[in-house]
Design goal:
388 residues; alpha+beta; six-stranded mixed beta sheet; 24% helix
């Protein structure tokens, strides 16, 4: 019989209520008895509970016996739970929660040496203790689950350095109407943190795009800060109109809310790209503003947020992950962009697509202000991480 310290086990719960106590009660009811010896917990809390996070953490520690917790706040959380002997809410189910106090929790029993907490990271250069470095020396390539406060002043640099030091990253940025802390055994603001998983856990992760390119990648030939002036020697607005197939202002206005720019990832073997917002268009001068600062020679392409394309790419990602697993997933973490969810799909559609492709398994997730995959921060994507 396997020792508890070496046998993986997971349980998930999720729920909403009138306040944090109501959300906690429903979450614990779905969670049921946590695995004996559980030693790591993941919690995502709706942003309306931001001032109750200390009470949430204290209650979770008391009810589960788990000391280590990581997570963040979000304007939307989601979860999938399995039936358990004490459940009265219903059979194993999946749901997402917006605009209500809600929680999503994943309790894990992992081999003690298979994970390592990431200390709060306030700067652009990754900090690890000597003990962390010793762990990494024998546990690479690790998978790092990262939660970050978007107010972190050097976040892009930090994500790159963490990936270089530790391995492949997944996760996302907190989203809220106010402060956006992360949870790293305690509530922290202005930092990134999380947990590292050793390769023996057989984790698989992948990313699904939510925007569809409508034209070719063009080289930036004139730019000022975040203002695209010329692409491939042509006016930026003229290039955009070419991709739209119309130079009529009314046609441009009709798709304005779904229009974005994509920055292709150099060297990607899967035509990967990072989506950024359009910040404005100067019609008289033909200039397009974007939420990025490309250099001359960088490539950009225009794209549209598209539900059918997002469904197709999510199905592609799920099929790819299913092919990489030796059996059904033991558990999962899903981070989806805040602009997806009810802004792109039907209610809990993403979760139902995951269940249809991979079956029922414990899962916790949230809707992010930016998604983390590999060594970059994305937008309008979904990042699914599975324990195989």
């Amino acid at each position: 019989m396997s020792d508890l310290t070496t046998t993986l086990a997971f349980a998930a719960g999720h729920g909403g209520g009138a306040d944090w106590r109501g959300a906690m009660a429903e979450t614990l009811q779905r969670l049921g008895p946590v695995p004996e010896g559980a030693n790591l917990g993941l919690v995502y809390a709706s942003d309306s509970l931001v001032h109750d996070l200390n009470a949430v953490l204290a209650t979770l520690r008391h009810e589960t016996g788990i000391a280590h917790w990581v997570g963040c706040v979000s304007m939307g959380v989601m979860g999938m739970s399995l039936p358990n002997a004490s459940e009265t809410v219903g059979q194993g189910d999946a749901d997402e929660y917006f605009a209500v106090p809600a929680l999503s929790v994943l309790a894990m029993r992992l081999p003690p040496e298979s994970f390592r907490m990431i200390p709060p990271q306030p700067d652009g250069e990754a900090y690890f203790s000597a003990e962390d470095d010793d762990w990494l020396a024998v546990s690479q390539p690790a998978v790092g689950l990262i939660h970050a406060d978007p107010h972190h002043s050097q976040l892009t640099e930090l994500i790159g350095d963490l990936a270089e030091r530790a391995g492949y990253l997944v996760g996302g940025l907190s989203s809220a109407q106010g402060v956006m802390p992360v949870i790293a055994d305690q509530v922290e603001q202005g930092v990134a943190s999380g947990v590292l998983f050793a390769p023996n856990l057989k984790i698989a992760a992948s990313l699904s795009q939510g925007c569809k390119p409508i034209g070719p990648a063009r080289a930036v030939t004139r730019v000022h800060n975040n203002l695209l002036i010329e692409l491939d020697g042509e006016g930026a607005l003229a290039a955009l109109q070419t991709d739209l197939g119309s130079d009529k202002i009314e046609d441009l206005k009709a798709v304005a809310n779904s229009l974005h720019v994509a920055l292709p990832v150099a060297g990607s073997d899967r035509a990967d790209y990072m989506v950024r917002n359009l910040t404005g268009i100067d019609l008289p001068q033909g200039i397009v503003g974007i939420s990025a600062t490309p250099d001359p020679g960088d490539k950009v392409m225009f794209c549209l947020r598209d539900t059918d394309a997002a469904r197709d790419d999510l199905n592609r990602m799920l099929a790819e992950l299913a092919g990489r697993l030796s059996g059904p997933p033991k558990a999962g973490i899903y981070v989806s962009c805040l602009a997806r969810g009810p802004n792109l799909f039907n209610h809990r559609e993403e979760l139902e697509m995951i269940r249809a492709a991979l079956g029922d398994f414990p899962l916790a997730g949230f809707y992010a202000n930016g998604e983390i995959a590999h060594n970059r921060i994305y937008g309008y994507t979904g990042v699914l991480t599975l324990f195989g």
